[in-house]
Design goal:
Layout lengths: L14 H23 L5 H8 L3 H8 L1 H9 L1 H8 L4 H18 L6 H15 L2 H10 L4 H12 L1 H22 L3 E3 L3 E3 L1 H10 L2 H9 L22 H10 L1 H33 L3 H32 L5 H17 L2 H4 L3 H27 L7 H32 L5 H34 L2
Antiparallel strand pairs: 1-2
Helix pairs in contact: 1-6, 1-8, 1-9, 1-10, 1-12, 3-4, 3-19, 4-7, 4-19, 5-19, 6-7, 6-8, 6-11, 6-12, 8-19, 9-15, 9-18, 10-11, 10-15, 14-15, 14-18, 14-19, 14-20, 15-16, 15-18, 16-18, 16-20, 19-20
């Protein structure tokens, strides 16, 4: 049984090794998004081979991945709070890389669906364990920047998937067909999955080489030892902070709807609306996502840390709410911008800067109002809610609007714009609603 919550602080961490740790974890996160987002460039050949609709592609990209990604995140969060986080991360990186490569040998739509499920299971290990490790490696006034550095993996990975994916597709299409025993001839889209999946098998061992940081801000039992909280006690800690948790989780869910619809359907919008080739689309959108997303993520963390040092306990949620509203204002213009290809690219660039800003600050925010023994589980709960909505609805909504409302493949950009504007506005409102409660909890745990 834990004593009355009285967090104990560990010694100030070694910042040099802390930045090395977050750099390695950023590489892992980048890899996860390369493996996840390469699918967006392969929509055309997959549709052609399997004869599926936009809605089925949305299910393959969203539900197949997110079903187990979300389901296993909660038990993984409890493991993160009790066992070695580096081992959990290393095993996860190895497994998801193996399953990405396995997409190359999927015999049909069902087989590819199962392989994408496997990718989701492996990638579910990373975020709760990585965020927990980072929070134990940095003081609070550096945590926003550290989480944002980790968070740029989303945009590094997605941008590199677009940049390198287009190049890989072009290169693979020029070489003779690859033939494997049992599986026969491998199409170029299948070879692409194999090429991007295999390097992760080696990165997994790099993650295993990290030192496990000492856990800080742990609740103490009556005998002075670190308390191990039961599931019931964990739920009590969450219940005390329900509004802050709900605000962060639901805000990130609406952000995830926008993010995953953007990542999957923005390249397809340029290809369908302006007849851009996959190679040109990959180059342009790769640069947009890489530069814009990275800039937005780092700016969000920097603004959050600066606000916290200036005495604004709710700085993280202020940044999240304001940037989400800015994203709404930009994406609301997409329907008008579709008259010109470079106007559309400009909206995508400005939009991804604002879309990137909330995540790092919100990851840090969630860690700063909970004791250490529940941080992995709380992060898993937040990601469960965010991904359950974001990963399923984000890829699916534009396809549904296109197939059943507009009934026009050329209207994809309008469907995407509606999804992006509505979800970012909802995120802004939810983040704003959670601010007062979050501020009170931050003051209580960080006097």
């Amino acid at each position: 049984m834990a004593a009355e919550p009285k967090p104990a602080s560990a010694a100030r961490p070694d910042l040099g090794y802390a930045w090395y740790t977050v750099s390695v974890l950023t590489v892992c996160y980048t890899l996860s998004f390369i493996d996840r987002q390469i699918f967006g460039l392969l929509v055309g050949p997959i549709k052609a081979e399997f004869g599926v609709s936009d809605t089925q592609i949305g299910l393959l990209s969203g539900l197949a991945f997110s079903l187990f990604y979300t389901l296993v995140s909660l038990p993984l969060g409890r493991l993160v709070d009790r066992y070695s986080r580096r081992i959990i991360i290393g095993a996860g990186v190895f497994f998801w890389s193996l399953m990405t490569a396995a997409c190359a040998i999927a015999p049909g739509y069902g087989g590819l669906f199962l392989a994408r499920m496997g990718v989701g299971i492996g990638e579910a290990t990373l975020a709760p364990a990585a965020v927990s490790m980072i929070s134990d490696s940095f003081p609070n006034d550096r945590l926003g920047s550290a989480m944002s550095l980790y968070g740029i993996g989303i945009y590094l990975g997605s941008g590199l998937a677009l940049l390198l994916g287009g190049a890989v597709i072009a290169a693979v299409s020029q070489i003779p067909a690859i033939t494997l025993p049992v599986f026969g001839e491998i199409a170029s889209w299948r070879a692409t999955f194999m090429i991007v999946g295999l390097p992760g098998l080696f990165i997994a061992f790099w993650a295993l080489s990290l030192r496990e940081p000492a856990r800080k801000n742990t609740l103490k039992a009556m005998d002075g030892q670190t308390a191990q909280l039961t599931i019931r006690e964990t739920l009590v800690e969450v219940g005390k902070r329900w509004q802050a948790v709900a605000g962060i989780a639901l805000g990130l869910m609406f952000q995830a709807v926008a993010l995953y619809s953007y990542m999957l359907w923005s390249p397809a919008t340029l290809q369908r609306t302006f007849d851009w080739s996959p190679q040109v689309t990959g180059l342009v959108m790769g640069i947009v996502v890489l530069i814009g997303g990275t800039a937005g993520m780092l700016a969000g963390g920097r603004f959050s840390d600066r606000g916290l040092r200036g005495g604004r306990r709710d700085a993280a949620l202020r940044v999240a709410a304001l940037s989400s509203f800015g994203g709404f204002a930009v994406f609301a213009l997409l329907g008008i911008a579709l008259q010109n290809d470079w106007a559309t690219v400009s909206v995508f660039f400005l939009g991804v800067i604002l879309l990137a800003m909330p995540a790092g600050s919100c990851y840090a925010a969630a860690q700063m109002v909970f004791p250490n023994q529940v941080r992995g589980q709380v992060m898993a709960l937040i990601l469960f809610i965010a991904n359950l909505g974001g990963l399923t609805m984000g890829p699916l909504l534009p396809g549904l609007l296109n197939d059943y409302v507009f009934r026009d493949e050329g209207a994809l950009g309008v469907s995407l714009g509606i999804t992006l504007a509505a979800s970012t506005l909802a995120a802004a409102l939810v983040f704003g609603w959670a601010r007062p409660a979050y501020r009170r909890h931050h003051e209580a745990l960080n006097p």
